[in-house]
Amino acid sequence: MKKLVFLLAISGAAFTMNAQDKKVAATAPQPTATQTTAPTDGKAPQMKFPVTDLNYGEIKQGSDPNREFVFTNVGKSPLVISKAVGSCGCTVPTWPTEPILPGKKASIKVRYDTQRVGAFTKTITLTTNAVGQESFQLTIHGNVKAEPAPATTTDKPAEAPVKH
Predict the structure, then answer these.
(1) In contact, 119 and 142? CB cutoff 8 Å
(2) Are 70 and 49 within 8 A, CB to CB?
(3) How confident is the model at residue 125 (pLDDT cuts 50, 70, 90)?
(4) Bridge pairing between strands 118-128 and 81-86
(5) How many helices (H) and strands (E) are present in the chain, helices listed first?
């Protein structure tokens, strides 16, 4: 009986300490996409993007849907991107599944459905092992213009050739 009470007391204390750690982490300020935070241990992976907001500009319906965000691991250990999610089904990211070694470049490829006419702003959320950048957001935006409707011809029907 004493062992059971002791185990329950230890479990309760561990649960309480774990809950407090999560509460502190949840209230810590999160960096924006243009910020770079310093790793706490000096050895953590760290992403650096020259551009975190890509403008497709004004494009025609059905134009090239692919764009790319290039980044460098400026940290001191391998960077792992475990997940990349578009803000809707029209935005599909592709990311490297292998670890990115320190000092190496890689890219997040993004495909937007350019068949959808109109202005758009979409985000891609990355889940990484970079300290201070565990959740990182990239943005794409632009305006897709409709393809003009094919011109209808009002020409007279072709006359039959004259036989001689």
Answers:
(1) yes
(2) yes
(3) very high
(4) antiparallel
(5) 1, 8
